[in-house]
Amino acid sequence: MKLGIVGLPNVGKSTLFNALTKAGAEAANYPFSTKEANVGVVTVPDQRLKVLHEMYNSKKTVYTSIEFYDIAGLVRGASKGEGLGNKFLGHIRQAAAIIHVVRCFEDENVVHVGGKIDPDADIETINLELILSDIETLEKRIEKTAKALKGDKSLQWELDTLGKVMNTLEDGMSARAADLSDNEAIFVKSLELLSYKPVIYVANISEDDISESNDNGNFEKIMKFASSESAEAIAICAKIEAEVSEFDDEERYDFLKELGVTESGLDQLIKASYRILDLISFLTAGEKEVRAWTVRRGTKAPGAAGKIHSDIERGFIRAETIAYDKLIDCGGNLAHAKEKGLIRAEGKEYVVKDGDVINFLFNV
């Protein structure tokens, strides 16, 4: 999973990136201090794997991971190349979802490109540039499809769908606001439009507001906007997150607890990203290895098997499945779980659930 961190210059993107990944990206008080997209890989914490590791005394534990891209600050005119905008917009195209950092903290020592703290205006600036970039992309695609339509009338549906999205963009709304059927949505997703990508708005709040996350109403503004387009919104103090990033888990938990914070910024972002991308994790466990695998909600057993290896999907016979909680109730003893009838033999139509512990049987 790749998540791109975007926002105006000096909103705290690199500070947040460093806190999340401990990657040491440059965080400086001037625009475009990030000239290339920094990349950091973070393992997704999953307490269930720790428990299974101890139960099975496994030789290896493999967590799923997230790649964070720290993309340089966008400015008004980015879609036309301002501030190296075309290059930066290209980096966003690689991401499955966008983490849009919005500045909500006051600091006279850190310049704001707009001259004042205004979350609504900042969000509008970034979204407008993504929309303008998408309009340019769609204009080219519509022209190409219209020409091809003369020899292939089946492309009329495609052209109509492109027109529907273009109308949405020209109304100043992101492509994700377009009213699309399931088939239209699949097609539009394949276009990799920037404003169609799922978004997590991150309010970068001050240290004074970290326990209440109200930030003089700024976070409420962001939540309201996020709600209007079915996006996620969370509040994080990037400065605090950076300070505790070097702590061990227990020290970090105790420090944040003293501040009235129940979850770290990383935990909040991971949960929000799983929600916005509609992801779940199933587990495999044994003496050799315990591991988490991430799939989209609604994935059937053969598709989940294919996540492990294409041969397992191709030769799928059945999935021996037990819910994690029920396995724990049996002390991790599979024989005991079988005696109690808790291990199910599921076929090709079974929809995998979060926390399923699965052993796939296959033949190739």
Description of the molecule:
The structure is a single chain. With 364 residues, the chain is of the alpha/beta class. Helix content is 40%, strand content 19%. It contains 14 helices and 12 strands. Strands 2-4-1-5-6-7 form a 6-stranded mixed beta sheet, sandwiched between helices. The chain has a 3-stranded mixed beta sheet with strand order 3-9-8, sandwiched between helices. Strands 11-10-12 form a 3-stranded antiparallel beta sheet. Helix 1 packs parallel to helix 8 and helix 4 (119-149) runs antiparallel to helix 5 (156-170). The longest helix has 31 residues, at 119-149.
List keywords for this structure.
364 residues; 6-stranded mixed β-sheet; 3-stranded mixed β-sheet; 14 helices; 40% helix
Blueprint of the fold:
Layout: E1 2-6, H1 13-21, E2 38-43, H2 47-56, E3 61-62, E4 65-70, H3 85-92, E5 97-103, H4 119-149, H5 156-170, H6 182-190, E6 199-204, H7 218-228, E7 232-236, H8 238-244, H9 249-258, H10 265-276, E8 279-284, E9 290-296, H11 301-308, H12 310-314, E10 316-323, H13 324-329, H14 334-339, E11 344-346, E12 356-362
Short description, anyone?
The chain has 364 residues and is an alpha/beta fold.
Shape summary: flat
Q: What percent strand?
A: 15-25%
Report the strand count: 12
Structural class: alpha/beta
Major sheet: size, sense and barrel closure?
A: 6 strands, mixed
User: Mean pLDDT across all residues, rounded?
Assistant: 86
